[in-house]
Amino acid sequence: MKVLGLRSLIYPTSDLQASKEWWTQLLGIEPYFDQPFYVGFNVGGFEIGLNPGAKLEHGGVTYLGVKDIHEAMNHLIKSGGAEESPIEDVGDAILLATVISPQRERFGFIQNPHFKIEEVL
Q1: How many of the other CB atoms lie within 10 Å of CB of 73?
Q2: H or E element: which one contains 47?
Q3: In what side-by-side order are the strands of the sheet with 38-43?
Q4: Model confidence over 32-77: pLDDT tens digits?
Q5: Residues 32/58/65/29 CA torsion (nearest 10 deg)
């Protein structure tokens, strides 16, 4: 398994509109994706996302980019980790899964064929 780097940090929110307004003001940019089920900001090619469907008690989830999410999940399980949520197609050929390490650290994998790092000036 090859990790491509950090890709996304997704925060749960109980008030999507208020969270969107706060992050817009903080970052000084509008979201690139804005729907009732998810808001995403492109911050130098990396994503800060707001998910009203996620559990607040879980906190944010950091996603590691991988070329092959199925290979990554198999490697994780062979390494003693566990699947928290199964691989999910969230649209546009983007696949996500959340996992738990043997020490109970929670993170995720993302396979995103559209990801490109942008230069930040």
Answers
A1: 20
A2: strand 46-51
A3: 33-35, 38-43, 46-51, 3-12, 61-66, 106-111, 95-100, 82-89
A4: 999 999 999 999 888 999 999 988 988 999 999 999 999 999 999 9
A5: 20
